[in-house]
Amino acid sequence: MPTLDGVAGTSQPVVVVGAGAAGTMAAIFAAESGRDVLLLESTNNGGRKIVISGGGRCNVLPSRMRPSQFVTTSSPNTLKKILLSWPLSEQRAFFEETLGIPLALEEETGKLFPVSNRSRDVRDALYAHARGRGVDIAFDTRVTGLKSPVSDRPWRVEHAGGEISARAVVLATGGLSVPASGSDGGGLRIAERLGHTIHPTYPALTPLVCDPPRHADLAGISLEVELEAPLQRGHFTARGGFLFTHRGYSGPAVLDISHLAVLSLMDGGDPQEIHVRWTDAGAQEWDRRLREGGTGTVGPLVRRELPDRLADRLVAESGVDPGRPLAGLTREERNSLVDVLARYLLPWTGDEGYRKAEVTGGGVALSEIHPRTLESRLRPGLHLCGEMLDAFGPIGGYNFLWGWATGRAAGLGAARAG
Ligand SMILES: Cc1cc2nc3c(=O)[nH]c(=O)nc-3n(C[C@H](O)[C@H](O)[C@H](O)COP(=O)(O)OP(=O)(O)OC[C@H]3O[C@@H](n4cnc5c(N)ncnc54)[C@H](O)[C@@H]3O)c2cc1C
After folding, report:
1. Are residues 135 and 267 in the same domain?
2. Which protein residue has the closest C-alpha to ligand 1 atom 31?
3. pLDDT above 50: residue 274
4. Which of 43, 151, 373, 385 is most buried by a 10 A CB count?
């Protein structure tokens, strides 16, 4: 770690803790404001979530964004202010023009990926740009604590090898999801020790499981669906890909609704009901098709709309013989078929937890940070950003958008300190 003493010895740098999406962006913008910046990272290479993201392609950004798509237990207004601080068009320009990573739109999903389809390019370009701006990156350096300034003394950043003085600190240590990537909640505990409120954390954007697995034989089948979770205050719907897995269910639509499932189990109540509409047709339309289907039978009609194995399974679960002529269906049989086709009650029993969660729900209360600079309202000179804050977005590049926007704001804010 040759840079640690060097930088710490010359002047008091802005110290950024965590070289993930948010921390690296914070370091870049603090350095562009003319500050010495030291970026400390516990793993030996950093940016691991960027590298594994988007199936190795890195969904850098979405092509559209509405703040209402994000989930927080803090104030939605604060969330909105933070999100809009770096408009999506400017974020895109930063990647394409400043970093030299052209992005391509995936039409069917609205996601933006690097043209190279290589997530490593994104991580490497961020690090190269940071270093080009003078940021010192120290790997294998786990921060264990922060001491806030007393009278005119600076921040002290504690790590295994000693302590570093800092004019300001950016904490960007991520949440609890996929601990093997380096984010294990240690930063949340540091924030808590400094007096911050941590809203209860939970795995979000995580696959659901069914124990015993009812549909393991359908593993690998994927299709577009609509999921609906009837909540007391309005319905939550998620449209998109659905994937049968050996243990349960995954795909963007399942991941997007999974936090409600997780929370219902954490509350100790009944598992949240999740209904699946397997095709574009809703209940009324299926009822009409079954009534007006003419001379055909049930099996082939359903097979026309769904993958064969799934069609056969759903008809079997309805209890109606697939060879039944449509013209002879009773009202009861029609209702059973409509139930499995348009409002199927998904038999889930649990979730894959942080091991597979793409993000962490809950985290540092947004009310305790200034929305413009992300500076702690409790500890001036401490800025917090990224997944450790109480907010996350759906699948589609929204979580990196949050990481980039909060990282930039925290970096600019920290550079103004002192
Ligand atoms: C499999 C997977 C795929 C994903 N795909 C996408 C995608 O395509 N698009 C999208 O928008 N989002 C995606 N996400 C979500 C996205 O990766 C996260 O939202 C984002 O990485 C969070 O950034 P962060 O900088 O806040 O935290 P992290 O990326 O977790 O970075 C935190 C960093 O801090 C380091 N650190 C932790 N504690 C310490 C410490 N005490 N001292 C020093 N360093 C420390 C960690 O090692 C880590 O490098 C995906 C997530 C997963 C798990």
Report:
1. no
2. 20
3. yes
4. 385
